[in-house]
Amino acid sequence: MTKAREADRSGAAGRASLPEIFLAFLVIGATSFGGGVVAYLRNALVIGRGWLDEEQFLSALEIAQALPGLNATNMSVIVGDRLRGPPGAALAFIGMTAPGAALVMTLGVLYASNAENPYVNAGLIGVGAAAVGMLSAVTFQIGRKQLRRPVDLAIILVTVAMVSFFHISLVIVLLTVGPLAVLIYRPRRGGGAQPPE
């Protein structure tokens, strides 16, 4: 473990106890739905508790999205580890997944017995629309701080076009656009990992 990571963890650990980590992720897991969980995570971890700043949140989110599995559970492990090491990662993961697991099991049983009810189907459509709205809101909140150059927008547009319009497999998109983005943002001598102007 590097000294920078040790310093980061020790500073964060002073702000968060293990019960606080568990409770925070338990609440997020119990009150968030689908893709909208990113908005809950940002509000709870950056705005509400101040455990991460915007840059740290974006870094954790980028890693979580690159790893297999759900973004929310990946984020819980990453943030829990950053705050309190392996015990923090374990408690954050349990807190994040326990409410959803219990809720999905309960709703699965209820939906199986009410699948033909039009009110149930209308409610699910409403929940889906709300999740899309929340995800869009947090995308705009975070995106305006990240999209500073035309090359940023170009990478996004190419990715969206490949997936949405040309229906290219996500694996192929990641294997083509990903290395290109890494090449563009590679560290340069005497500066950070910034694309050319």
Automatic annotation (TrEMBL):
The keyword Membrane applies. GO terms for cellular component: plasma membrane. The chain crosses the membrane at residues 21-41, 89-112, 119-142, 154-185. InterPro entries: CHR_Transporter (IPR052518), Chromate_transpt (IPR003370). Keywords: Cell membrane, Membrane, Transmembrane, Transmembrane helix. GO terms for molecular function: chromate transmembrane transporter activity. Its main location: membrane. The keyword Mitochondrion does not apply. It is a multi-pass membrane protein. It holds the Pfam family Chromate_transp. It is found in: Cell membrane. Belongs to the chromate ion transporter (CHR) (TC 2.A.51) family. This is Chromate transporter.
